[in-house]
Design goal:
Layout lengths: L7 H18 L3 H28 L2 E5 L10 E5 H20 L1 H7 L5 H20 L3 H19 L7 H30 L4 H8 L6 H18 L8 H7 L2 H27 L6 H26 L3 H21 L3 H29 L13 H4 L1 H15 L5 H14 L2 H31 L14 H19 L2 H15 L4
Antiparallel strand pairs: 1-2
Helix pairs in contact: 1-2, 1-5, 2-3, 2-5, 3-5, 3-11, 3-14, 3-19, 3-20, 5-6, 6-7, 7-9, 7-10, 8-11, 9-11, 10-11, 10-13, 11-13, 11-14, 12-13, 12-18, 13-14, 13-18, 14-16, 14-17, 14-19, 14-20, 16-18, 16-19, 17-18, 17-19
Length: about 500
């Protein structure tokens, strides 16, 4: 009797992908939202089932059309992809369910079915990038998710999203082109696109220079997609002017998937086949990570718009992820992957809290939320909880990943101790810019024209608290993300020379 779990990697992608064209035909718009939400819930259930399967067995594979790899299209799920699938599907589902009122107000009714169809294409594309086991299909899913993401960012009523999405499109296209050039070079040298087969065949390539060039193209291309400093210029405006639900979705998972691909390619394909590549990886990404942490935090400290503040904070958090990865150690990679999960929880909750504030505040400047805690106490309490996780206060998920990162750094001598001190200093900067918002909301006096008349809609508030409490839960009981991250780190390091 066949194992029914074998089909789950394919269902993870196929269900949202096939639901998208159906959603376009649904009227009224509420049916389109309901269908998209059900498809996203199904994807989340599949991700949970895949995670349980991966915890029992180290990986799960599926061959499309029963054609075995490397001749056919292979899908594969291991601990690293499982934790990313939880982030992607969880962020999509929570954002859709919680932001129904916000999306209805922000998007014209006749355009909503198209919007939800694009949402499902982003979901399918991000999930496909995570489970695809060959380089070309990664590119196919990358383009599906990217093109649909541009539609989502520009789908709201704020016309400032149009120049933001144009910049996003141009830079995203450059990133995808660089990635495709790199894959083309590897295919030219090896004759394969399957990642496992590629890793084996590169070992037989006599001249490694084209492989090194390919590594450069792929690293820069995925670095653009991941908004690694200084390749982050598309991110602040895209997050700021997108509809609030889209900001929740993309901030939680889009850059994480690009980072996942960057680490998977580098460790699975290049580390084992390019002598000294671990040192190159560290020397390249460690200074960029430190700069990203401090530049992102410093700019956030002076930002007046709440969403731009959180966007620049994301650049700093990407720096933490890359700093852990640049250590090329089990503890560093574990910290890096755990922080992908924990940052998604914190940043998703913060953007949901901003969506709550937007229902009552005339604007989203820090000064606009003055006095908000008096009329929206539950919203601001959720913002505080999520902010504490972002800072890394004990008892929150953010503390867990920063603890693992500092422990990993302290195991690397004097340089590691210096970097650990810089991480602590950067957390103080996070405390400062989160405090600016809290101070305004709790101690500021609202302007006469402010319309702070009550709490946010119940469903939106409930979703915000669900994300905030998840940050507390995984801060107190972090075994699931830590176990998956440690297993993923061990898998990555098996491929290092």
């Amino acid at each position: 009797m066949s194992n029914p779990l074998v089909d789950l990697p394919a269902l993870q992608v196929i269900v949202p992908l096939l639901t998208a064209p159906v959603v376009i035909l649904l009227r009224p718009a509420g049916l389109a939202w309901a269908a998209a939400s059900v498809a996203s819930l199904f994807a989340l259930a599949v991700a949970v089932a895949l995670t349980a399967a991966v915890l029992d067995a180290s990986s799960l594979g599926y061959s499309m059309g029963a054609w075995p790899a490397p001749y056919g299209i292979e899908l594969a799920v291991d601990a690293f992809s499982a934790i990313l699938l939880l982030v992607i599907t969880g962020a999509s589902t929570l954002a859709l369910l919680a932001s129904r009122v916000s999306l209805t107000a922000d998007i014209e009714e006749h355009r909503q079915p198209l919007f939800y169809a694009a949402w499902l294409l982003v979901l399918a594309g991000l999930a496909g990038m995570t489970v695809a086991a060959d380089a070309f299909n990664v590119f196919v899913f990358m383009e599906i998710s990217s093109l649909a993401s541009y539609v989502l960012v520009a789908g709201g009523s704020d016309r400032r999203a149009l120049p933001a999405v144009f910049k996003y499109l141009i830079i995203g296209t450059i990133g995808a082109t660089f990635y495709l050039i790199g894959i083309g070079l590897i295919y030219l040298m090896t004759g394969t696109l399957n990642l496992g087969d590629m890793e084996a065949r590169i070992q037989d390539v006599a001249d490694k220079k084209p492989i090194l060039v390919a590594a450069g193209f792929i690293t820069v291309g995925l670095g653009l997609k991941a908004a690694v400093f200084p390749l982050h210029v598309w991110l602040p405006n895209a997050y700021t002017y997108a509809p609030h639900a889209v900001s929740v979705f993309l901030a939680a998972c889009s850059t994480k998937v690009a980072l996942y691909l960057l680490l998977r390619f580098d460790f699975f394909v290049f580390q084992q086949n390019l002598f000294g590549h671990s040192l190159q990886f560290s020397l390249f990404f460690m200074p960029l990570a430190v700069l990203g942490i401090f530049v992102g935090s410093w700019v956030a400290l002076f930002e007046r718009n709440l969403k731009r503040l959180l966007a620049y904070s994301s650049i700093a958090q990407i720096g933490y992820i890359m700093l852990g990865a640049s250590l090329v150690s089990r503890s560093g990679l574990t910290a890096s992957i755990v922080h992908m999960f924990n940052h998604a929880l914190a940043k998703g909750a913060l953007f949901l809290a901003v969506a709550c504030l937007a229902t009552r505040c005339p604007g989203l400047r820090v000064s606009d939320v003055a006095g908000a805690a008096r009329t929206m106490p539950w919203t601001m309490a959720a913002f505080v909880v999520a902010g504490l996780s972002l800072i890394g206060v004990p008892g929150t998920a953010g503390f867990v990943s920063k603890w693992y990162l500092i422990a990993a750094l302290l195991g690397n001598g004097l340089l590691g101790a210096l970097l650990a001190a810089l991480v602590v200093m950067s957390s103080l900067l996070a405390l400062a810019y989160i405090w600016r918002v809290i101070e305004s909301a709790y101690f500021g006096q609202p302007a006469p024209a402010a319309r702070l008349s009550g709490e946010a809609p119940p469903l939106l508030l409930a979703g915000t608290w669900a994300a905030a409490l998840a940050g507390i839960y995984f801060g107190l009981l972090p075994s699931l993300p830590v176990t998956l991250s440690a297993t993923a780190a061990e898998s990555l390091l098996r491929h290092v020379l």
